Description:
The structure is a homodimer. By secondary structure, chain A is an alpha+beta fold. Strand 14 of chain A pairs antiparallel with strand 20 of chain B.
Amino acid sequence: xxxxxxxxxxxxxxxxxxxxxxxxxxxxxxxxxxxxxxxxxxxxxxxxxxxxxxxxxxxxxxxxxxxxxxxxxxxxxxxxxxxxxxxxxxxxxxxxxxxxxxxxxxxxxxxxxxxxxxxxxxxxxxxxxxxxxxxxxxxxxxxxxxxxxxxxxxxxxxxxxxxxxxxxxxxxxxxxxxxxxxxxxxxxxxxxxxxxxxxxxxxxxxxxxxxxxxxxxxxxxxxxxxxxxxxxxxxxxxxxxxxxxxxxxxxxxxxxxxxxxxxxxxxxxxxxxxxxxxxxxxxxxxxxxxxxxxxxxxxxxxxxxxxxxxxxxxxxxxxxxxxxxxxxxxxxxxxxxxxxxxxxxxxxxxxxxxxxxxxxxxxxxxxxxxxxxxxxxxxxxxxxxxxxxxxxxxxxxxxxxxxxxxxxxxxxxxxxxxxxxxxxxxxxxxxxxxxxxxxxxxxxxxxxxxxxxxxxxxxxxxxxxxxxxxxxxxxxxxxxxxxxxxxxxxxxxxxxxxxxxxxxxxxxxxxxxxxxxxxxxxxxxxxxxxxxxxxxxxxxxxxxxxxxxxxxxxxxxxxxxxxxxxxxxxxxxxxxxxxxxxxxxxxxxxxxxxxxxxxxxxxxxxxxxxxxxxxxxxxxxxxxxxxxxxxxxxxxxxxxxxxxxxxxxxxxxxxxxxxxxxxxxxxxxx
Amino acid sequence: xxxxxxxxxxxxxxxxxxxxxxxxxxxxxxxxxxxxxxxxxxxxxxxxxxxxxxxxxxxxxxxxxxxxxxxxxxxxxxxxxxxxxxxxxxxxxxxxxxxxxxxxxxxxxxxxxxxxxxxxxxxxxxxxxxxxxxxxxxxxxxxxxxxxxxxxxxxxxxxxxxxxxxxxxxxxxxxxxxxxxxxxxxxxxxxxxxxxxxxxxxxxxxxxxxxxxxxxxxxxxxxxxxxxxxxxxxxxxxxxxxxxxxxxxxxxxxxxxxxxxxxxxxxxxxxxxxxxxxxxxxxxxxxxxxxxxxxxxxxxxxxxxxxxxxxxxxxxxxxxxxxxxxxxxxxxxxxxxxxxxxxxxxxxxxxxxxxxxxxxxxxxxxxxxxxxxxxxxxxxxxxxxxxxxxxxxxxxxxxxxxxxxxxxxxxxxxxxxxxxxxxxxxxxxxxxxxxxxxxxxxxxxxxxxxxxxxxxxxxxxxxxxxxxxxxxxxxxxxxxxxxxxxxxxxxxxxxxxxxxxxxxxxxxxxxxxxxxxxxxxxxxxxxxxxxxxxxxxxxxxxxxxxxxxxxxxxxxxxxxxxxxxxxxxxxxxxxxxxxxxxxxxxxxxxxxxxxxxxxxxxxxxxxxxxxxxxxxxxxxxxxxxxxxxxxxxxxxxxxxxxxxxxxxxxxxxxxxxxxxxxxxxxxxxx
Lengths: 670, 670
């Protein structure tokens, strides 16, 4: 990995500074917004996320155009433009979004690497690919602004006749997000013009009855709403915000058949828990949070806070994964959190991060970044292979011994692409834009908040004055984070805030000649707040306790009764069969009376810290045809014939990178 | 319930005797078959199953024609016959099978009630409905024998172009089964002629390459195979048997894309476990057993035995329910047996009973009827409401507190009919033909075997001589079964065999002046064998121990670690929220140190024996947003603040007959 490249000054950050310090990320609350925090930009220069982003930049994103070509997505755009002959490719009305998400990813990547003239041949190729694909999109657009290749080609131009399943506005939403990214990242207007024409067209078609618009309805898959808010933020056109608000409140009143799947069973403002298709719910909640941020709508904010709590407290897997059901990709009931059949779609993890970041900006509360951290390191990152070439659509917490997997989108085997390829380009865009989710400044210009720890620089703007804090860390492998003030006004105090992760109960902080620990550090609601008149060179060293943890679930999570999971720092661990060559994982038992040990393994899976626990393998009776018996025999007592075994746990994100086999996060204690 | 009707001599049984004692059920091994047992017919006169069958006869079956009319199935037949105008109704290419399964149910019902001239107005109406619907089917058939309304109407007559999903042979299979039933039950040829024409057409189209038939392939949904064997049995036409064998061995070689879903991943002869779509697997296994029975194919028999063991030992829910996944209606992995998301389709329970009965006849082993009993009383019977008007498609083992159920086929609420209405008429045909699954005679004519206990008469034929054993029992509420020999040759010994259920470890047997218990009774492999020169009036009284049992699962069933289920006799019990008005069921804990008590409740759910256990309600902390915590605190220790509660368990089959609410079979012990 040629790390030296990343130590160059980031052209994107320079560009952002040229624009007056405004960062260029996917979420940018407007000037009058009711946001507690505004995103700052973080330069990720080395370490864990730098490595993941280099793979994204050098493998995943560059492979995109070829995959979009071979899957037919680009062909469909040419068909719609009248520039090609042949059959439509792809089985879904939303295949255009694969292109849009890739364009968004590539745009953030271009911003990071600098424009063509600055970034060398690789970046030049990427810029050329983007320009070429933006042209295909523009050419496919119809004169009145409509754009959806499925309906243009397969349905003879029929529009908006199947709002429940047609995904036309969903596609528009991803187009708009790509266009905003392209504009923010490159300063170019081509894609933004396409998006605005489509948005204007939608605004001329959809509206409440009495508005003069022909259709009073909404798309079955939320997404355009959050995109329209961002288009408002980028263009200043208030009617995009109003249209987003109209759509948001159109859900829950039966226009889509009243199904929870489409978020139509109950209005979001009245909902008491998250429900239905997880990604739909989460994109809708991102929009609700955006709207509350821009308009100050207290009812919407309250609903978003209530639903976030209901989700995390009762419907979130330990990995941050969301969606208990394969069937309808549904959230499931409270505490219904299966392991083998956990759906935990990679896109739901991404949507959860996107929503929680908006909540963090709206409220300023650390818990949202706690969930982002957990999801990033576990439920999200498991979605892409270490080499950046293969993907998981669903992210189960267990694969049983002898699992027969016939492949397909919902396989527990990594796949190069999917028939429904929503996840891979979604991962690409999040990784490419990750630096926008890591730090913030508060609305009053009083300080800089560090949400996630990386090696690099956090840069904020405090009322026109730049502040820069450099960071060095081997997080998540080690708990030490060294922060050094590099730029500061020097003549007035400001607050450096650093999030103390929710998983961390023991830590130390050294700031100048003061040292705190978890008993006396100035931490409120998860934020370590250090207010000083900082001078250049000031150092803060945070030491987070990284002892491995054995974690149990609320007893209402029936699926893991009598089990523990291994965690260390922000990482959830799992066992993989390949590390346990004497047998499978279905019959192992962990011994919780002996503390697990830590072994760093630079040779393994790109370098991981493993956790080693004591356990045994059950000797099970063979041969009877019925696996249920009298409860008399205490299952807790391990027969003396049981075979002792060393259990080697690896980070969950790294599973399924070696050979097929069983895996489990939750380990039986008897 | 006018029970007096049922004490009339059964016309069907009389008819069967007129045919030389051969019973008229759905499975009738041929004269040269390698069957250990041959089905005898049981007259069910009173008690548990009589009540269920009366509801089937008086409510479910009579409602069928109206439902098939309103759902459009009959309309589709008229469309195909050119006798109606309008749109095709129904979303699936297999809607014709709803009609066929109803015809089979009605045929068994007619056999039981006697023909029109014997059975009164109600039976006359049913006979007229059958005649009318048989005519609709006959009129819809094309001149060359082809019959499938979906392809005739919706696909412009296109045939066999989509074998993976088209269900054309699947539909033929259900037509053939209905026709065999109609012929056996009524002696009439109209429907059998239709079925033979279709079977002859199929035989002219499908065959191995080189056979001169144009298509070398097989339907993605097995069903025609077992039906063709029965058509061979009914007609003596060997080529139907050969065609069944050809189809069976066509699976597993990639003709259907190699998917486990379609039973195409591996040939059944080589398979090591059941996999893929549960109903498809089970219908295929029924055919394999039929073929092994007729041909003596030892490899097929061995495969069927191996797969039955793999299924029961590792993939069967306590209720006998099969299918762990909603996704693809799949069996799932070994020991992957979720509760909330158990699929356990009602049709899979039926298919399991059909297959196990064929295995019982082939092998003579009691274990197959053990599984039939468990499935009948639990996983199957839960599929129909007590009033016979509403149905469950899936049969979960848990519904959580606050479960949001938006209805639909896969709801945990009973529904009057389904968009995919495979289950209701399948229940009807099994209940209407149930008497054929209850007793047998052995191939050597040496005895009568009682597989399931009912009040009524078991009648067999021992080499031309009839034997009759009358039975009185309040099973499953009480364990006493009184058997009285009514007809016997008198001059030679024969063996009366009675199955000692697999769940039963304590029992007594009184036979004349001998008394046995479980330590000395002549029981081998589950069969109590009493060989005597019986004389009329001889009595055997069997007393099965009916103490409630607390049952645990193999520790590899992760979903129920630390839980027990309540069972009594053949019944699995569950808690329903309606019986626990002080709260829900998600926070209850059962106390296994205190033995549960039994309370018969004639007022409840048509009369059930409840089991009452001691337990408590957990006091759970409120408010935190993250439900995972350090495993340090022992979850086993119930806090002293926990509220004691009496847990009232009802038989699982009777759940969801009162109000919506939570339910659970497996009860946490901590």
